[in-house]
Amino acid sequence: MPTLSTISSTCLHCGATLRGRIDKKSCDAGCKGEYNNRLQRQERTEINQIDLILKRNRRILKRSLGSGSSRLVPTRELLQQGLRFEYYTHHYENRKGDRYSFCYDFGYLEVGQGMCLVVRRQRAL
Exposed site from 73, 95, 114, 121, fewest CB < 10 Å? Predict the structure, then answer.
């Protein structure tokens, strides 16, 4: 079993050799804060990129729907406008078992033959 004197680790932020407690991860409060801030910046950047895709998907679906409550739209048209089918906020399954993918309040159902049924979900407030 290693002794405390033989175990060495480095600071997660600056890489300095740590001394003291065996579970220590940073050399001081400044390095700890900088390390955690860097992690949060990376997470915010990733989340912001996904949010932009979701918002763009919603705008595409809204534009494709127009003023109606539902409309059949060629899948090709949605792809040409930049819809990214792999990004959505949630699914809704109706009583018939049809599974709609939604970007906030606008969604679509792939109905086959290269068509999607674009809908807007009405919510009671």
Answer: 95
Q: Are 104 and 58 in contact (CB under 8 A)?
A: yes
Residue with tokens 């048209």: 77
* Tens digit of each residue's pLDDT (9 = 90 or more) over 38-73: 888 888 999 999 999 999 999 999 999 988 899 999
Distance CA 17, CA 38 (A): 20
Could you state, in order of their start, the residue ranges of all structural domains in the chain? 29-120
* Assigned token pair, 116: 């999607």
In 10 A of CB 118, how many CB atoms? 25
Phi/psi for 85 (5° steps) reads -65, -20
The answer on pLDDT for 6 being more than 50 is: no
Report the side by side order of strands in the sheet with 115-120.
Answer: 70-74, 115-120, 106-112, 99-103, 90-93
Quick one: tokens of 88?
Answer: 């959505």
CB atoms inside a 10 Å sphere around CB 58:
19
